[in-house]
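Reviewers of the previous submission asked for a worked example of the structure-prediction workflow described in the proposal, so we include one complete record here. The input consisted solely of the amino acid sequence. No template or homolog information was supplied to the procedure at any stage.
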Amino acid sequence: MKKIVLVAFSLLVFGCLSWAADKSYSGTVSDTHCGAKHSAASADAAACVEKCVSGGAKYVLVSHGNVYQLDAQDKFQGMGGKQVKVTGALNGDTLTVSGVAEDTTPSKTSG
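From that input alone, the workflow returned the following structure tokens.
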């Protein structure tokens, strides 16, 4: 009986760990002031996002029409208005970011 309980507990623990595993999200870095307005990467978007962030706004990720809050703001410095791939765990509308890299593959608009 103890073995069955132990196996069931182990499956539950490892199942929860895999459920919370990091996933990849692609999109454009915008800011809390402009939000989905910057759903496509461009030089104009980059200038606007960095200006808004320097004025107190926070970086966000616009991906497939959704706007995600980002918990690791320092990882996005200088990436405003750029297409990126973010690795992290989603909780509600907030991404707990473990990594970010500029996405250099040609793509369609994220929105």
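Residues 22-102 form one domain. We consider this example representative of the routine output the project will generate in years two and three.
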